[in-house]
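Illustration 12: Glycoside hydrolase family 3 N-terminal domain-containing protein.
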Amino acid sequence: MNANVAVENTPEASLWNDPTLPVTARVDALIDAMTLQEKTAQLYGVWVGASDQGGEVAPHQHDMEEAVDLDALLPTGLGQLTRPFGTVPVDPALGALSLARTQTRIAATNRFGIPALAHDECLAGFAAWGATAYPVPLSWGATFDPDTVRRMAAAIGRDMRAVGVHQGLAPVLDVVRDARWGRVEETIGEDPYLVGTIGTAYVQGLESAGIVATLKHFVGYSASRAGRNLAPSAVGPRERADVLLPPFEMAIREGGARSVMNAYTDTDGMPSAADENLLTGLLRDTWGFDGTVVADYFAIAFLKTLHGIAADWAGAAGAALHAGIDVELPNVKTYGAPLAEAVADGRIPEALVDRALRRVLTQKAMLGLLDPDWDPVPATLDGADLDDPAALRGRIDLDGPKNRALARTVAEEAVVLLSNDGTLPLARPRRIALLGPNADEPTAVLGCYSFPQHIGVRHPGTPLGIELPTLRDTLAAEFPDAEITVAHGTGIDDGDLSGIREAAQVACEADVALVVLGDRAGLFGRGTSGEGCDAEALVLPGAQQQLLDTLLDQETPVVTVLLAGRPYALGRAVEESAAIVQSFFPGEEGTHAIAGVLSGRTNPSGRLPVSVPRGPGSQPATYLGARLAHASEVSNIDPTPAFAFGHGLSYTRFEWADLSVDAQEAPTDGEFTFAFTLRNAGARSGTEVVQLYLHDPVASVVQPVQRLVGYARVELKPGETRRVRVTVPADLASFTGRDGRRVVEPGELEVRLAASSADPRLTARVTLTGAERHVDHTRRLHATFGQELVARA
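Figure caption equivalent — predicted structure in token form:
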């Protein structure tokens, strides 16, 4: 089904179809041959849904857009196809055939034979029916394991390529500033270094599979006032530079991301979608980004309807194009006729259209979409009878054993044991009370951008497409000799108190009570976590706290298990639960991971990527605060968390000792090297997460009390000892100074080697000497860790 179409009436056609020529020459020739309407057609997408019968895709009717007439649009070309797999349930093989047939039509209809670029969501796995539902990004952060996240992203990318998708709308690199925000589950955590390193690993994995990774949301979305979705962003230039921007900088510089998506929000009155200083000055001119900037869905139209900085669609198009947005998504609204008319009458320079077009066509050329042998049919359908769609059903498996094994690994590494009085691991209990609204709910492990929760809920008669064992199922397998009795007690958010007495009675008759609480993922108020599901306070939804408190009044030990999209204040449970197990929407293998921690089959190694608050009303607050952001005598509100960023317990015990420092002083362009001994003093194998925090006692501008600048997972067998060596470049002490430039200042520093942000184990005091030194985006970004096994005595 080779769909490339020769352009016979254009002599330069051989240039853009010739893969032996430089991409710039091919793209220039193509742009020169295009009409204005053909140019603008490459700058927008059309939202479609693949056909479950293998026919062409059908335009998706969204309540924010008018109906699309493909017959009218396609003769001038089409830039993108929006979410062919993430719009309706479709068998992957038939969806791939549907997309291939549509691409054939697109290429055959426009006179240059240019296909569309197809994008889809992949926030927690490819958001397609039947694809593996991995843990949400907040769980990726809890692993503190970039290598595993990189492998997961590569698997996601391979599945997307297998069905003909080119671009993935992930990762989210927003740094959590207020845990009330509904999209916390989509973030990696509250620390920019953790977000940057885990996010960069995800980009590397996705890009290694040939998928264009899209960084979002650039920038400030997570810093919205009061944690409200799309509210104005309340940050100053220094917080923006030192907290919100570094993950994007790292993912571009080290990850090789080829696309960036703007944030919806405005910062100090400037919407990101119209911010030339951000999207062109910083992103391109300073950082050197040469990929495409794509609009978050409807963001360009929002410049008129929500932000009020444009009087009409042409004004919105001009503002976004001038700022540096190359592609309008998800549909044609402003970059179609309004843009073309404004260019034709001189209101918008055609040079801006050509600038965006050059980036779009360059990306298409690099993806092979302009090559003469381009074929829309993916390799997964090679040899298949494409004229017999029914025979294709089930041919492509997007949730095979390797995927599920990888999903389980991520989920297991992400489970965080917050507290434990010795009750865990459970010692073969005879009677288990399994209580709470998430005790036997299959979708309790899924985030709002998983296919079942995002799209499947609109198709109630359609099977889930993946196996989702409940915690009841996995506990029955983990404890085959135990009698498990289930009582919900209350719903997620219905406030129903009528079942709490029954739950308490069930608990009284058991050896242990497992109360499974948390969230239901959804969109725009249909859940308690997810996009548009913001919280007024960090109290457990509905009557869950009442259920928990009632169970704590019983004599039976209570183990609190959380399947949630954000951290919650747990009241009495912090001190009175026998144990607390935190999991952030751990994906389809999540209940296996939790059951393994409860039984002791798995030794927990997850660490908190966000602080767990002690009280529900202390937001916004993160560990990454200056002195006045922490507890003080001048306020009666104490924001000290119940469990700090980086916290997590193990079933073994680690001893830290023998810190040595190679030199107490180093110049501002130098480095420090430390070494210490880490020993597993317990009776079972385990993983310690060594965290490196920097404290700057005196600086020219106010600094956080401490900030994470490095980490490493260290695996140790019982009795095993390793000498851990850490090299810390002076560049890691840099911050944005008074003049807006990043500076390394001379002076004393504390380097804290810690088990969490609240648990320093060893501290080195060192001094930077010499003159102030300004650094930029080429500075060193990482400490380096080395591990050497110490021979046993």
